[in-house]
Structures are given as structure tokens and as C-alpha cells.
Fold this protein.
Amino acid sequence: MNIVTTCIIFFISSFLIIFSSKSHEINKNNIEIIIKDFLIKNPGLIKSTLDEYKISLENKKKQNAISLLKEVDNPKISQKKADVTIYEFFDYNCGYCKSVVKTIMDIISEDKKINFVFVEFPILSQQSYFAAKAALASKKQGLYNDFHLSLMNIKGRVNEEKVFSIANKIGLDINQLKIDMNNPEIEELLIKNRKIAKILGLNGTPAFIIGDIIYPGALDINNLKEIIKQFRES
């Protein structure tokens, strides 16, 4: 059922409710004429109804996508008394993503009531995808946070050689890392992240989600603090 059909049914239902006491006196032709005349005289009403219906559908899709995101086992920093959760969609070859790393770590260090979720969203290159798989695989060895920060601090492009060089420096077992990178669960997780991003209309990084609001682009620490403040007050 499309939006137009839904609206027409809505208007017909409303009409029948309004004129229910005289419905036995109104035949099909009369109903069609009255409804047609009403819509001609009130074109803005059906447009506003369609617009509201479309907005409602989009909001529902967004809420469903955010609910799905909460179920994905993305790496996170959890704090016991957290009352705010920040999700960040990022790519290891995104310069803007790298520029906000210090902001993120500073705010988590200052505010002990924030959970932060790292949403791996490699969209810039195959090298980004490789780095994301390696980072997720490092979680098995308990070194995701160290590996993530080290990859984000790389100057220039992140590639396979740099990924393994960093992995070796922070003490990851490279052979085990390569095995874990082929775990189908990692591919499934990245697919879920991409699907959620598509529903949310995200086509760039970084993008942050706090509550049910999406904040695309890099945020400085003052912006982020104000957003968190507004969330807590809402």
C-alpha cells in the first residue's frame, strides 16, 4: 500500500465517521463526488498529510536502525555510571576521523558517565576495509583500544604493511590476528554496520549518534560537551 492510497483511505474513513448518521442516504457516487470536491478545495490538506506520513515513516526507520545498532557487538569503552552513549561511524583513512580522536579520548577521560562505541565503517578504500578487519580481530587478543588509537595516529594512508607493523609494535600475535581476521563474524558485523548506515543515510565519516540524533562531521570538544549537556537535560 503506497502513501497516496493510505491517505485516501484515511479521508474516506474520516468522512464516513463524520457522516455516519446519514450513511444510509449516501450512495457510492455521492461519496466520490463529495470527497473529490473536498480534496480540490483543500489541496494543502492532502499534501501536509503526505508530508507528515513520510516524516513519520523516516523517523520510524531511523529509530529501528538505531535499535539495531545497539544490538551489534561493536567495540566499546564502557563506564559503570554512564548515562550517555556516543556512537561514532569512522574510517581509518578518514582525516577528519583522525582529527577528532583526541577530542573523544579527552571527553571520555573527563566525563566518567559516558560510554563510547566504535562503529567500524570502512568506506574510503579496500585498505580501510583491511584495517577495520584487523582492528576487529585484535579484539580477540584484548588489544582493540590500543590498536585502534595506534591506527588512528598513523600519518598518511593506512595500508596492509602499516597495519601489521603497528600490530607487531603493540604486541599482537600476528599469526593469530590473520586467523581471526577471517572469522565470518567480522564480515557479518561490518555488513550490519553498512546496512544501518545506509538506512540512516550516512555516506561519510565521521558521524556521531547521541540519543536519536545524528551529528555528521567532525565535532570539537566544545560542540561535543554542549551536545552531551543538551542530551542530559532533555
